[in-house]
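In response to the reviewer comment on reproducibility (Comment 2.3), we provide here a single inverse folding case reported in full, input and output, so that an independent group could reproduce the run without further information from us. The structure tokens appear first.
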């Protein structure tokens, strides 16, 4: 899940607590090109106010226009295919002939629904994954622990929608540097929750990225405190071994899906030897660390390095092999 979805559920809770019925929309599947992946959320009121995104603009505009005009959907829960016809796809300006399947729920504000939203919100901020099950006939819903092997974020059968709800993507930046600052900007745009840790007051004073949490502690201490989960990426981008090495030593003890440290090939070899000798890391633990960090884009400037880092984090999160990235880049558009 993305950090944007945390904002959606926070707004849903706020409206539900005030007694207002809400519309909750979930992207079930996409065909063709789509700016937002399955599982993306949007919440709205009858008057058209909304938070979240389904397609980057076109589909949410069509949905909001429908509820404002009073074209209310007849069931508590239903799935709508946006862009299913060529005419509609052109009207909505969906890219590349895309089709977006959206589950639309209209829920009254009651104690059961409020509790359900609180559980979903806590899950996005927590450590465990849940499966949200919504019955299309009647609209009943419940959650259960997600104990399955990797599977699609959203699955649909004839009667039920299954949505995997897990911690929102988190990026921990171990120390402040020009590259780290650009990474923070990119990550926020991509929907990550971003936390920067640096005990140096002068570095914190010059860091100003909206929406980023800044912790005035050693990154290693913050990482060791239990602030990570399986949807966390941890990167060290300072070139300072006093910050980078302890961060990597603690990072490999976590479930973080991506761990990386900036440096050249020679610097990375030296760091690996140092982490084994002084940090006591095993070969398997060192192998978890992406170093040199990022995709090989020939990056030189801080913004270019940050782009390579965030691209590699996204590639890893999506389970795409490096060879697949290269082969796809060579396919004509």
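Designed residues, in position order:
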């Amino acid at each position: 899940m993305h950090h944007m979805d945390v904002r959606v559920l926070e707004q849903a809770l706020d409206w539900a607590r005030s007694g207002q019925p809400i519309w909750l929309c979930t992207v079930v599947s996409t065909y063709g090109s789509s700016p937002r992946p399955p599982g993306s959320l949007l919440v709205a009121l009858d008057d058209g106010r909304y938070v979240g995104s389904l397609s980057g603009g076109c589909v949410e505009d069509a949905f909001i226009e429908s509820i404002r005009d009073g074209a209310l959907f007849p069931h508590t829960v239903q799935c709508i295919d946006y862009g299913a016809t060529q005419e509609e796809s052109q009207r909505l300006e969906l890219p590349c002939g895309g089709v977006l399947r959206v589950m639309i729920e209209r829920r009254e504000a009651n104690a059961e629904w409020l509790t359900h939203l609180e559980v979903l919100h806590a899950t996005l901020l927590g450590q465990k994954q849940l499966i949200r099950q919504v019955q299309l006939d009647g609209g009943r819903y419940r959650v259960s622990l997600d104990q399955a092997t990797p599977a699609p974020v959203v699955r649909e059968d004839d009667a039920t929608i299954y949505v995997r709800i897990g911690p929102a993507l988190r990026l921990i930046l171990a120390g402040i540097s020009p590259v780290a600052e650009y990474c923070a900007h990119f990550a926020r745009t991509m929907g990550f929750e971003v936390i920067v840790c640096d005990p140096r007051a002068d570095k914190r004073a010059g860091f100003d990225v909206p929406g980023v949490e800044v912790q005035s502690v050693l990154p290693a201490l913050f990482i060791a405190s239990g602030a990570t989960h399986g949807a966390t990426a941890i990167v060290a981008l300072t070139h300072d071994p006093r910050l980078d090495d302890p961060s990597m030593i603690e990072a490999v003890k976590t479930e973080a899906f991506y761990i990386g440290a900036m440096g050249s090939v020679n610097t990375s070899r030296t760091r690996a030897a140092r982490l084994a000798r002084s940090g006591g890391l095993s070969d398997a633990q060192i192998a978890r660390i992406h170093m040199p960090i990022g995709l090989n884009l020939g990056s030189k400037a801080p913004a270019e390095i940050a782009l390579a880092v965030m691209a590699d984090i996204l590639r890893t999160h999506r389970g795409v092999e490096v060879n697949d990235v290269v082969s796809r880049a060579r396919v004509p558009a």
